[in-house]
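Journal club side-thread
Mid-discussion, someone asked how the predicted structure for our own chain would compare to the paper's figures. Pasting it here so we can look after the session.
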Amino acid sequence: MDLEEQVMGIIINAGQSRSLCYEALRHAKNGEFEEAEGLLKEAQAAANEAHLVQTKLIEADEGEGKTKMTLIMVHAQDHLMTSMLAKELVTELIELHKRVAA
């Protein structure tokens, strides 16, 4: 797999993770907590796929600048970090929705 395909793998999986997080939040707002938890698990699986690609790129670089840094690579990293933050925040918001519902 070439670098561009790897980077697109990060973007696609991170974007999927983020979308699933917000879908989970929508379900939690409606009191559908089982659905929300299932979607968070799916989001984590997508995030894991993105993170795996990132880890492989880091390993290949060996801290020596071997991997060509491009704007699309930076964009992919931004997507990954945003999706990770979204998952953390959405998880907390879902917990709050559960408390309010109880």
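Post-session note: The helical segments are 3-29, 33-61, 71-101.
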